[in-house]
Specification:
globular; mainly alpha
Length: about 325
């Protein structure tokens, strides 16, 4: 199926934000949470990627079966572990190899966690698809079953906080929202987009990465602890959806009003998003100055330029396709 330009542009825009956020983080790790741009990006950027991943699977109309899941394994899990192994060929510290691999499996957030979590969510999608076919589930029943699966993963992650389950529990709602969004009426989606954009623009200023929303102290005297937790939790869900809505609006603006070169650039970044995600960290800190702002710009540009250049030069190599999850088919 022909690629969807809006999906590619949005993915490219999302990757732009990821690299910028990491550039800020690398240049100023101690005070990054005080940076307004960093906070805006981190309020939704990985949730956006999960939403796009679900949307892309849905748009492709790929049959969700065992062959699809095996391909997801090759394209996600093999690169995840491969890039955990590669550093050992340089530091030669093989004495901690097995303990490092065990740690990577138990705590995938120490590596390329997005790939690992996306595979776990893919397993959930396969389970849902299997049961849907087996018992002819659809409509509202299917929706409730999906919500049940997400709730079950959240409960499991609470009691068994290993193998990235807490990340899967959080991001699965965004993936499945993207997967099912095309099922809704276009007018309804347009109206919902406007609502979420307005909510994000109004409330994102209160968002903090590791702290409670800034408005909590102002309302805690008027309600109890349980209600406060519910409000805080709802806010944590709503803000990413607002950022997602804003991102698709921006993508449509880029497509409609920007020139072909800008559109092509964002589309290229979107198509090479996995390579950029994997390679970016190798190029932070190549050039360091005494100016934090300049370091952010240099980190951002070097990460993008080198990552895209390498991906374009090597994208047809077999090893490259394995390392960056670009296997086109599975051997029978």
């Amino acid at each position: 199926m022909e690629r969807n330009k809006i999906i590619d542009i949005t993915r490219g825009y999302a990757m732009f934000l990821v690299v910028l956020g990491h550039a800020i983080q690398y240049a100023n790790p101690e005070t990054m949470d005080e940076n307004i741009i960093f906070r805006l990006i981190y309020s939704f950027h990985m949730s956006l990627f999960m939403f796009i991943s679900g949307l892309a699977v849905s748009y492709s109309k790929t049959e969700i079966n065992s062959d699809w899941l095996r391909k997801r394994f090759f394209n996600l899990i093999i690169p995840f572990f491969a890039w955990g192994i590669i550093p050992f060929f340089f530091n030669k510290n093989w004495s901690v190899f097995f303990s490092s691999m065990k740690e990577l499996l138990i705590s995938p957030e120490h590596g390329l966690w997005f790939l690992f979590v996306l595979f776990e969510i893919s397993c959930l999608l396969y389970l849902i698809s299997f049961i849907k076919k087996k018992f002819n589930v659809g409509g509202v029943t299917e929706l409730f079953f999906v919500l049940f699966i997400i709730a079950a993963v959240n409960i499991l992650a609470f009691f068994v906080p290993i193998m990235g389950l807490h990340l899967t529990a959080w991001h699965s709602i965004f993936f499945f929202s993207g997967f099912y969004v095309l099922s809704f009426n276009k007018k309804f989606l347009n109206g919902l987009t406007v609502v979420f954009v307005l909510i994000w623009l109004t409330l994102v200023c209160f968002w903090r990465r590791i702290e409670a929303p800034l408005f909590i102290p102002y309302i805690e005297n008027f309600t109890n602890g349980i209600v406060l937790k519910l409000i805080s939790r709802a806010y944590r869900w709503i803000i990413p959806f607002g950022g997602i809505a804003c991102s698709f609006v921006i993508a449509k603006v880029i497509e409609k009003f920007c020139g072909n070169k800008i559109v092509s650039l964002f589309s290229l970044i979107g198509k090479r998003s996995v390579e950029i995600y994997i390679l970016q960290n190798f190029f932070f800190g190549i050039i360091v100055t005494s100016n934090t702002g300049l370091n952010i710009v240099i980190n951002f540009l070097t990460a993008f330029i080198f990552s895209i250049t390498i991906s374009e030069l090597c994208r047809n190599g077999k090893i490259f396709k394995i390392l960056f999850g670009r296997l086109l088919s599975l051997k029978k």
